[in-house]
């Protein structure tokens, strides 16, 4: 029997490990099972280079729970350890056996099947245990089996024991504060989270819980569309089928594999983030991947696996490193290339998926200059008046430039956000031959504001931002059929309407146009829209009153009738009703004003009936 003290630089190492190294206590299952995988993969490597000549068998890792004894045991059939190796790798905290193994067999193994790099993983067991035992038998012939025991203090015991099979059993005696880990369902959930895709079979309650050869570890040429779809179902059993996917596979200047899926997204964007899982050699690390995946792609689903991603000592968080930026850039390029490829090869299918794809494309173009360069080619603008018709930027320019170029030489891109509410404005613009696109998603207000400075030859204007004649400012004058006196009288009638922040203007529009058209200037309305969805530093816009332009169509025949009316009170009510109708069309008539409009309308109708 050997007794001694674990060689550490400070006696406080265990409290530090227990309280500070791992923020989440359930991590211990990941660390111990990962160590078991390491031991198994090491044995396979040794067998491959001829240093182990015994029978490998079918190595697997088993996890056993004994509620009566309050123990949890993780067993492997790997290399095992001699007494000297236990002393070296267990008693010397932070001396990584995996690190030494990789150095020794450099060139004979690619290293990607060895998980551990820090040597502290085993000590996570003391977060949940008041005593830990190791029963291990080396693959080396004639080496006796040994038992190691420690209660979480720097004191340990190491002695020879009997063990029939090669490998290592880690026995955790669960402490009172951690009895949640004696629940079978809890253990199974943890194993499914951390060990779902480990390369060695992991069994619990006589059931294998992991897929040892997940789709991302294979070459794209080996996989069918059905394989990708099935793997998506494995990741997200209750999700709708994905639109398409991107298989990541790069080995220079960093190692990275994975599959990213584009989920189907409706325009309300009621989706879950954090659906991309980060793995390191098939070991789950985190689903917080914002430092690796560009923000505009955080709504993607899938898996990224890279042994080159720098993790902290607990393998729980990313550390700053140039590789992280390189990986982010690579993923952005792959997504842009994939979208461009689908657009070129299957435009119809691309258009059918645009409702979901558009979110990623627009967000990416706003936040990444290189993505925007490619996005300019596959960005689609949907015609709001013709179902299923889409334009690229170049196509819209060709279709609209003749009629929609203003006096400053800019192309005015007319858009609508609500086809029903803005129908009269859409029809008026359509009658002038204008092309109106649909921009009705939550991201579109920000998208317009970001793109206008970059597309300096284009100007976005909502179709209800002005009367149709003014949407494209060509510096043209309009003629009115009313005399100067009639125009003055009509303007006076409208200016008596007690509305704040309303600018009244008479214009000689076509007789078929509405008698009163209410519009909200593009800039202020756009700022208020941005503030409403939480635009940074723009909250004060939301509290500002609406600016309203009220355009009186002096050529509408109804005004000749009103101006001939001898009853001044009736004139005022008729004009007020026309103004209220226009305000109502823009949802700007509410409360007492709306009630007064209804009552006034009934009064005018009753008076007409009497006459």
Automatic annotation (TrEMBL):
One of its GO terms (molecular function) is ATP-dependent protein folding chaperone. Keywords: ATP-binding, Chaperone, Cytoplasm, Nucleotide-binding, Stress response. InterPro entries: HATPase_C_sf, HSP90_C, Hsp90_fam, Hsp90_N, Ribosomal_Su5_D2-typ_SF. The keyword Nucleotide-binding applies. SUPFAM superfamilies: ATPase domain of HSP90 chaperone/DNA topoisomerase II/histidine kinase, HSP90 C-terminal domain, Ribosomal protein S5 domain 2-like. Pfam families: HATPase_c_3, HSP90. Belongs to the heat shock protein 90 family. This is Chaperone protein HtpG. It comes from Chitinophaga ginsengisoli.
């Amino acid at each position: 029997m050997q007794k001694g003290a674990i060689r550490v630089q400070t006696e406080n190492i265990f409290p530090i490990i227990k309280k500070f190294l791992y923020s989440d206590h359930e991590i211990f299952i990941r660390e111990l099972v990962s160590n078991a995988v390491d031991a198994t993969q090491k044995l396979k490597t040794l067998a491959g280079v001829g240093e182990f000549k015994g029978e490998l068998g079918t190595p697997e890792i088993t996890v056993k729970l004994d509620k009566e004894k309050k123990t949890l045991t993780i067993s492997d059939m790997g290399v095992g350890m001699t007494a000297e190796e236990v002393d070296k790798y267990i008693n010397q905290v932070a001396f990584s056996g995996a690190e030494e193994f990789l150095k020794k067999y450099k060139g004979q193994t690619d290293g990607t099947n060895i998980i551990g790099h820090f040597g502290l993983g085993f000590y996570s067991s003391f977060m949940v245990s008041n005593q830990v035992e190791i029963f291990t038998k080396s693959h080396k012939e004639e080496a006796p089996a040994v038992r190691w025991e420690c209660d979480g203090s720097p004191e340990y015991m190491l002695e020879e024991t009997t063990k029939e099979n090669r490998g290592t059993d880690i026995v955790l005696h669960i402490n009172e504060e951690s009895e949640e880990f004696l629940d079978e369902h809890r253990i199974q959930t943890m194993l499914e989270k951390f060990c779902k895709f480990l390369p060695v079979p992991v069994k619990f309650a006589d059931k294998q819980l992991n897929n040892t050869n997940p789709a991302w570890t294979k070459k794209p040429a080996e996989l069918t569309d059905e394989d990708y779809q099935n793997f998506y179902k494995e990741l997200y059993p209750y999700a709708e089928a994905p639109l398409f996917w991107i298989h990541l596979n790069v080995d220079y200047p960093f190692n990275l594999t994975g599959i990213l899926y584009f989920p189907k997204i409706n325009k309300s964007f009621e989706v879950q983030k954090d659906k991309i899982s980060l793995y390191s050699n098939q070991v789950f690390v985190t689903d917080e991947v914002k430092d690796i995946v560009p923000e505009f792609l955080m709504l993607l689903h899938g898996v990224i696996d890279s042994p080159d991603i720098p993790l902290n000592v607990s393998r729980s968080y990313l550390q700053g490193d140039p590789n992280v930026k390189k990986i982010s850039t690579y993923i952005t390029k792959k997504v842009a290339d994939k979208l461009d490829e689908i657009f070129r090869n299957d435009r119809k299918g691309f258009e059918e998926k645009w409702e979901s794809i558009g979110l990623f494309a627009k967000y990416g173009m706003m936040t990444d200059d290189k993505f925007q360069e490619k996005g300019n080619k596959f960005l689609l603008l949907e015609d709001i008046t013709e179902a299923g018709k889409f334009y690229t930027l170049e196509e819209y320019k060709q279709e609209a430039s003749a009629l929609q170029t203003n006096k400053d030489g800019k192309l005015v891109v007319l858009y609508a956000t609500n086809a029903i509410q803005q129908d009269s404005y859409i029809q008026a613009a359509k009658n002038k031959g204008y092309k109106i696109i649909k921009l009705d998603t939550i991201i579109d207000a920000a998208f317009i504001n970001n793109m206008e400075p970059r597309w300096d030859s284009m100007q976005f204007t909502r179709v209800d931002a002005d009367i149709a004649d003014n949407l494209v400012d060509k510096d043209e004058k309009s003629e009115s059929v009313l005399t100067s006196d009639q125009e003055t009288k009509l303007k006076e009638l409208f200016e008596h309407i007690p509305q704040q922040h309303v600018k009244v203007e008479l214009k000689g529009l076509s007789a078929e146009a509405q008698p009163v058209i209410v519009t909200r200037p593009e800039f202020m309305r756009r700022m208020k829209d941005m503030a409403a969805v939480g635009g940074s530093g723009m909250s004060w816009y939301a509290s500002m009153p609406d600016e309203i332009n009220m355009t009186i169509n002096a050529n509408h025949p109804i005004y000749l009738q009103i101006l001939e009316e001898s009853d001044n009170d009736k004139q005022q009510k008729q004009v007020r009703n026309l103004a209220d109708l226009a305000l109502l069309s823009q949802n700007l008539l509410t409360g007492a004003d709306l009630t007064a409009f209804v009552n006034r309308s009934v009064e005018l109708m009753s008076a007409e009936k009497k006459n």
